[in-house]
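Example record

The entry below shows one chain as it appears in the dataset: sequence first, then structure tokens.
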Amino acid sequence: MAEHEMTLFQVGLAAFYIFLFKLTQQTDLCVLTISANRYRAELKDILGFFSNTLPQRMIIDPHWTLDQLFDCTKELCLKSMRHAHFPYQEMGELQGIQTLFLAEPICQAKCSSELVLKPSRSLLDDMVAKFDMTCSIDYNNEIRSITASLNVSTDLFDAKTISTMAYRFQCLLDQVFISVSSFVCNISLLLEHETELLQQVNMNNKFQYQSNLLLLHEQFANRVEEHPQKLAVVLDNQCLTYGELFYFAQLISYHLINACHIQPNDIVPLCVERSLERTIGILATLMSHAIYCPLTPNHPQQRLNGILRQTNAHCILTHDMTANKFESKTVNLSSLIRPNNIDIIDQSLNVPRRDFDEVAYIIFTSGSTGEPKGVQLTHRNLLLTVASYAYNGSILPTDTALQITPCSFDAHVPELLGCLIMGGTSILLHPDGNMQLNYLTSLVERNQASYMHSVPSHLSIICEQLEKDNAFERLVTLRSLCSSGEAMDIRSLNKFRRNTKATIFNLYGPAECTDVSIYKITQDVKQMIEPTCIGRLSPNLVCRILDPYMQTIIPDGHQIGELFVSGPSVFPGYLNRNDLTQCVLINGLSDRTEPYYKTGDLVRLDAYGSLHYVGRKDFMVKLRGQRIELGEIEHIILNASVNVTRCVVIKHQHSKTAHEYLVAYVQTTVMNIESLLQQRCQEQLPSYMVPSIFVLLDKLPLSTNGKIERRLLPQPDAIIEQIVQKRGEQPKTKIEQEVSAL
């Protein structure tokens, strides 16, 4: 204090600013202080109460050192004293000030060689707290000690929380008085038991795995040797045993190597509807030591062509339904998979063995730059993910698994291959089977399926239909239900839990690291389902939850931070995009040699070690389980016409139906452009990325710094109703029909 010529009050106020910043993660803080208000010499000796409440606003730069914060606090206090006589009540009326915190200067310092303090505890004598939080600091001259106290409103905080706050403030003061060269953002409020909790989160659920694990197709070959006559895949009236599936896959692999000259690490796109051929094609690609890349057949041709350019593919695997989508380089699986071709199979294909950490498959996801980006996943990534499924019991070798997930989801790979390399049976739906609910549930019943995966919105529709038909008995054989891609629908899950015996697993994980955490929901009715909970870390993964200044958040279930994940299921990088890879794979966050993946997801960590999903740091969203970069849609719209000057796309949830959909707000002077914009989106984007509504505006609302102010955009619910009323006709789109039905 002497070095900075500061009073104890000024130091305490600076510490209180840090305390509030670390607790609230806000940098713009306003704290009330009490001024003696004897600003004229003749007032000093007059008896009476002159004190005035003085707001002190500080905008903290988290990268300041404590030295810099002390200097700024001292300057703020000196400047504010010039206006200490201005009544606070009038100030509040003029500015509409709303204050939550009070810092009380309980001391007065006299200029002498010895600091003399006269503590005043008038604000702490009352049983009722006058403010949400009051901080007082005393100096005892006799024993030369400083005492800090917090008076906190029990209407806002319970006794345990208040006690914890006091310990945190003590922890902060210890750091403040040790080193004034520390940065404000590096001050930690973590207590000892919280540090231990963070360590336990990263130490739980570890299991040993072999360092020399077999590759994916080698694992499958072992299952073939164990039970060649067991059913591997079933599609309606078609089926293949493990032995048959292996031989057909080997046949296609032989063709890829000898006729198509596929080399190790070549990318082989597969544009095939859900079928036996697709399963054969995936395994054949891996047997050729090439890289599997799914293409969704119903995606726009322009998008498919863009992916082909990125992969530089020598051939494209198709079947009868998709053979005409491409002009050249196609290999029609339907024409090759013939029983009379089995004789030409060479039992010992001369292909060099690949490394366990080489890429096995690539999933293209939405990209903010206007082009999809390829997420590369290795054999290790998938095998360790499948091993964690078995460890947690979500899928087992004895399962008969219903394969629902489309190939546009990254989850279709562990769902299909995971089942096969574990030795289970995969039940395929025909391409349009997902929304044919009677067909889907009948498949579960007929094949006695024990495992199913569904996104929450799809599960909600299934449960509604089964309840309507009183047909939940069709799902009686289900042992495990996995759900991912969206926030859980508690109503549907409780309905499902009441009517089946299945254990529910809520899976969380971006494509870049397969599955990160698992939230297990048992049949125990006492277990309350927490809608935001994404559970505990998957085995052998570690995480860090960091604030914007790369400091660990407080694991109290309230503070929010960005999730960083490291471990064997984290991807090696994006295809041909080292720039993007360097942005998301971060080294140096711990003593681990493996990088951390920067997920962009905001989470909380509760006192029990469970993660809770809060939202996104950027504008990526998920709709019906599909990952969407809104920037990609905006890029398409902006380039659709010279008359479009600005655009912003949001995901909106209807206030009455709770259905989610995309809304595009377009700044344009041309009001008949909607059909053109919709056409351009349909030509270049998958159907789930095409906005349901285009709102044309003369001008989009902007903030003072020129950015689009999303909060001020008109609500789309009212716009839909206006459109329907203005037309004076029957609603056409799905969204219009939902609103009209209300």
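Notes for this example: Confidence is low (pLDDT under 50) at residues 104-126, 344-349. The first strand starts at residue 28 and ends at 35.
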